[in-house]
Amino acid sequence: MTVVVVVAAVLVAVAALLALVRIERGPSMLDRALGLDLLTAGLVGAIAIEAAWSRRTETVPILVAMSLVGFVGSVVLSRFAAREPGSEPGSDAHASGEVPPEDRIDGQGGRQ
Amino acid sequence: MTEVDAGLWTTVADVAAALCLLAGAFLTFAAGVGVVRFPSLLARMHVVTKPQVLGLVLLLLALGLRVRSWSAVALLLLVVVFQLATAPVAAHLVSRAGFRTGKVDETGLHPNEMGEVPDDDPPASATSGPRAP
């Protein structure tokens, strides 16, 4: 059981690190929202692995709270997504959702 | 928390929990690889939604097989229901925000169901706006 728990924990930790890479690299705010979603899921999975290893049930309410918090974060970030200059191909296809450059909340707010 | 007797069913539940743990961790790892390597926003949305939710469900199933108490299993079932209810909503909101802000390459979408939306007025004001005579 110890070998299984170590292997599973390493896999989930590597998944969380890859989510961090996507958060750092992501060209738009929505990619960062997806990375945060995966990071929250990795945290929930790590807590579940630890609880399955030591047969504890005290940390199970943390899982409920974390799943709801991840959903709310993803929804809020996609709700306030804004247009960004030159992020992906086909970015001139829609002109709706136009936001003035000083109102952007993305990481690269109107710099170029 | 739970009394553990060394019986046949305890061993069977532990082995099943170990298998579910490995499968769930591998699916979460696959979601991590996909979110780094996939090229577009919709592909990343897909890989964050489907394998990640299935991996998390498998990890929670392993936890429920390992601790065998009904209160913990009820809470884990609540987490599974939350995930299955909120992951499609979050993916839909992310992809719709990507469409609205022009981050999706629409040439690869063959039934492009959001292409007919006019560019200059949002559809909420088009349906509920005042109809001037």
Automatic annotation (TrEMBL), chain A:
InterPro entries: MrpF/PhaF-like. This is Multicomponent Na+:H+ antiporter subunit F. It is a multi-pass membrane protein. It is found in: Cell membrane. Keywords: Cell membrane, Membrane, Transmembrane, Transmembrane helix, Transport. Residues 83-112 are annotated as: Disordered. The chain crosses the membrane at residues 33-53, 60-82. Belongs to the CPA3 antiporters (TC 2.A.63) subunit F family. Pfam families: MrpF_PhaF.
UniProtKB/TrEMBL annotation, chain B:
It holds the Pfam family PhaG_MnhG_YufB. The keyword Transmembrane applies. It comes from the Bacteria. Keywords: Membrane, Transmembrane, Transmembrane helix. InterPro entries: PhaG_MnhG_YufB. The chain crosses the membrane at residues 15-36, 48-67, 73-94. Residues 103-133 are annotated as: Disordered. The keyword Glycosyltransferase does not apply. Belongs to the CPA3 antiporters (TC 2.A.63) subunit G family. NCBIfam families: CPA3_mnhG_phaG. This is Multicomponent Na+:H+ antiporter subunit G. It comes from Isoptericola halotolerans.
